[in-house]
Amino acid sequence: MKTTGIHHVAIICSNYDRSKKFYVEVLGFPIIQETFRAARNSYKLDLKVAENTQIELFSFPNPPERASKPESCGLRHIAFQVDDVEQTVFYLKSKGLEVENIRVDEITGKKFTFFKDPDNLPLEIYER
């Protein structure tokens, strides 16, 4: 198998309007397409993260809460690559988000930190 990248990451949110506002207005991801699926009473919002990478934001009636902390089996977090971690932290804080202290990856020497989406999904910003 040969891959050429990650096409998308799918996220199920508990409050569609709140999460849509967060990912579009706060994080600035442009909307590719928004679809209401009547049979499922569900929205699917396709967002452009980078040239060939998307987030699929789903809403479902009464989804269960996230099972546990990020150290459990399964997807741990999503990391977004940025040019300037400090500048991104300043921006996120200006939008009222709590951001962890900036750390340095002991393996790569790159700066990174974490913040959370409206459903407490851990999101990382990682220096390019």
Verbal overview:
This protein has 128 residues and is of the alpha/beta class. The protein folds into 2 domains: 1-62, 2,3-Dihydroxybiphenyl 1,2-Dioxygenase, domain 1 (Roll), CATH 3.10.180.10; 76-128, 2,3-Dihydroxybiphenyl 1,2-Dioxygenase, domain 1. It has 2 helices and 8 strands. It has helices at residues 16-26, 85-94; strands at 8-13, 31-37, 42-50, 53-59, 78-82, 103-104, 111-116, 122-127. Strands 1-4-3-2 form a 4-stranded mixed sheet, covered by helices on one side. Residues 5-128 form the VOC domain. This is YaeR, glyoxylase I family protein. InterPro entries: Fosfomycin_Res_Enzymes, Glyas_Bleomycin-R_OHBP_Dase, Glyas_Fos-R_dOase_dom, VOC_core, YwkD-like_dom. Keywords: Metal-binding.
Number of strands: 8
Structural class: alpha/beta
Give the percentage of residues in beta strands: 35-45%
Rg result: 15 Å
Overall CATH architecture of the largest domain: Roll
GO molecular function: metal ion binding
Domain VOC: 5-128
InterPro entries: Fosfomycin_Res_Enzymes (IPR051332), Glyas_Bleomycin-R_OHBP_Dase (IPR029068), Glyas_Fos-R_dOase_dom (IPR004360), VOC_core (IPR037523), YwkD-like_dom (IPR037478)
Protein name: YaeR, glyoxylase I family protein
